[in-house]
Specification:
Low-confidence stretches: 9-14
Structural class: mainly alpha
Shape: globular
Radius of gyration: 20 Å
Distance between the termini: 71 Å
Number of strands: 0
Mean pLDDT: 90
């Protein structure tokens, strides 16, 4: 009888615990939609204090650090946020290495880091962006954020300088296929899945402009 009572007690305790974590994540989602990202990330971190291996909380905390870091004016501060984004993404991948969102946030963190680095270090991050974006899309071909990142990868690789392209060629053992038409294609795929993803329009316009299609860029 004591064993049964203990089991019931633990079941209720676990259910209550799970509800607390879910509630905090939902609160974070609402704050994020209200564009209160700093407050949202605190909710996700609270959820992680209760459940350090909660995959969604890890993914959202990583994503928020990449987003908030991008707004920082100080390069050192940016790097702190991006390193945190990578750390949370690594934890998410330890929970589930094939999860689409876990791979997406790692690709995002690598992309942000590549923006503030140069030379071989930048090239290393550029290689990782595609690795994790491809893994995300292998798990979920309709992950529009991963498609956006892949489009950004094609756009950025075509704009690398000669030294960076040479370093990328050495790392890959050959220059990976990257082109402006492929950048456009991936951005357009992302738009087709989620037409409300505003950042995608900006990058799509850049890709069209670089590809000599100013009329479509303006549109």
């Amino acid at each position: 009888r004591k064993t049964v009572l203990l089991f019931i007690f633990l079941s209720f305790a676990y259910q209550s615990f799970s509800q607390d974590v879910d509630y905090l994540i939902k609160e974070g989602d609402l704050l994020e939609k209200a564009m209160k990202d700093e407050e949202a990330v605190k909710k996700y971190q609270e959820a992680l204090r209760l459940s350090p291996n909660d995959l969604k909380a890890l993914v959202k905390t990583s994503e928020m650090n990449s987003i908030i870091g991008n707004r920082q004016k100080d390069k050192k501060k940016k790097e702190e946020y991006y390193n945190a984004a990578r750390t949370y993404a690594e934890s998410a991948l330890k929970v589930n290495a094939t999860d689409a969102d876990a791979n997406y946030v790692m690709a995002m963190a690598m992309g942000r880091m590549a923006m503030i680095k140069s030379g071989k270090e930048k090239v290393q991050h550029v290689r990782d962006i595609k690795k994790y974006a491809d893994a995300s899309l292998a798990a979920n071909p309709k992950n529009f954020k991963a498609l956006h990142i892949l489009g950004k990868w094609h756009l950025e690789v075509t704009m690398l300088n000669f030294a960076e392209k040479a370093a990328l060629k050495v790392i890959y053992g050959g220059l990976p296929e990257a082109s402006l038409p492929l950048a456009v294609l991936n951005f357009e795929k992302a738009r087709g899945i989620d037409p409300w993803f505003i950042l995608n329009y900006l990058e799509l316009a850049k890709a069209y402009k670089e590809n000599g299609q100013s009329d479509k860029a303006i549109e």
